[in-house]
Amino acid sequence: MPLRLTQYRLCPRSRSIRLALAEYRVDVELFEEKPWEWRQSFLAKNPAGELPVLELENGLTLCGAYSISEFIAEDMPFSADGATAAPPALIPGNREDRAEVRRLIDWYQGKFDREVTRELLIEKVYNSMRPSGPIAPDPGVLRAVRANLKYHLSYTGYLADSRRWLSGDELSFADFAAAAHISTCDYLGEISWHDYPAVKNWYQRMKSRPSFRTLLGDRVPGTVPPLAYSDLDF
User: Fold this and answer.
1) Beta pairing class for 3-7 and 53-55
2) CA geometry: angle 105, 110, 115, nearest 5 deg
3) Among positive and negative, which fits the CA dihedral 3, 18, 24, 111?
4) How large is the greatest C-alpha to C-alpha distance in the chain, in angstroms?
5) Is residue 1 predicted with pLDDT exceeding 70?
6) Segments making up each domain of the chain, as ranges
7) Residue-wise over 170-201: b if at least 16 C-beta within 10 A, else e?
8) What is the pLDDT of residue 107?
9) Is residue 149 scored above 80 in pLDDT?
10) Helices (H), the chain
11) CA nearest 184: which of 134, 122, 130?
12) What pLDDT, on a 0 to 100 scale, did the predictor assign at position 86?
């Protein structure tokens, strides 16, 4: 019986966990939760009202990308088929290396989310889905978010240009967290890739991983991504 992941297709925290589970080739059943509905049955699972939520076969429920990613990193077996390599360690390296991985995970899942992704989703997706009727995006909010996005992409470019992967020499969950947030921004047409060549080169490597395929196939009714969103040679 597969694990059950309650998520939303454009939620970057959900996307980061989907990427991690796909890297480990874990059979998981996806259930979509609409964040703007605040359903009581979902709040009963996670009173914080945040996605994602992972339900395990033994009845354990893990709430939030932080607890789920740490659980996967510590104790998640992977499906070995002999034809593919073992998945990357999500939090690799020595003590100092792992501290840097966690710092960047917190940066993207916390700061980037607060200053960019969450507001973009509210303004461009969630408000258009309201049962009481759609609300047009606030130009002032979008201007502020776009200014924040430039700052975050510049910082990501600095990391990508000075390191093999964002946290250092090894691929880590910091890369998956960053790629999840950036992929949501990309879906919403908010990234001018020619302005950030180092980010583009790094993201192209991430986007080309098999774990990314299902994310690139996601679509939201009423919101069409740019043509290059699914293009590996964008």
Assistant:
1) antiparallel
2) 130
3) negative
4) 53
5) no
6) 95-217
7) bbbbbbbbbbbbbbbbbbbebbebeebebbbe
8) 98
9) yes
10) 12-23, 40-45, 65-75, 95-106, 118-124, 139-162, 173-187, 197-207, 213-216
11) 122
12) 81
What is the Rg, in whole angstroms, of the alpha carbon atoms belonging to the chain?
17
28-66 b/e with 16+ CB inside 10 Å = b? bebeebebeeeeeebeeebeeebbbbbbeeeeeebbbbb
Residue 203 and residue 11: Cα distance in Å, rounded? 18
Evaluate whether 55 touches 28 at the Cβ level (below 8 Å). Answer: no
- Count each helix (H run) and each strand (E run) in the chain, helices first: 9, 4
pLDDT of 80 above 70? no
- Find, among 141, 143, 127, the residue nearest to 222 by Cα: 127
Task: Report how far residue 116's alpha carbon sits from residue 162's, in angstroms, rounded to the nearest whole number.
Answer: 24
| Other Cβ atoms closer than 10 A to 15 | 28
Q: Could you give the CA distance from residue 166 to residue 178 in angstroms, rounded to a whole number?
A: 9
| N residues, the chain | 234
How far CA 38 is from CA of 47, 51, 206, in Å, comes to 10, 11, 32
Cα gap 56→45, rounded to integer Å: 13
Tokens 């991430």, located at residue: 206
Cα–chain-centroid distance for residue 52? 10
Domain boundaries 95-217, CATH class:
mainly alpha
Whole-angstrom distance, CA of residue 54 vs CA of residue 62: 5
Average pLDDT in the chain: 94
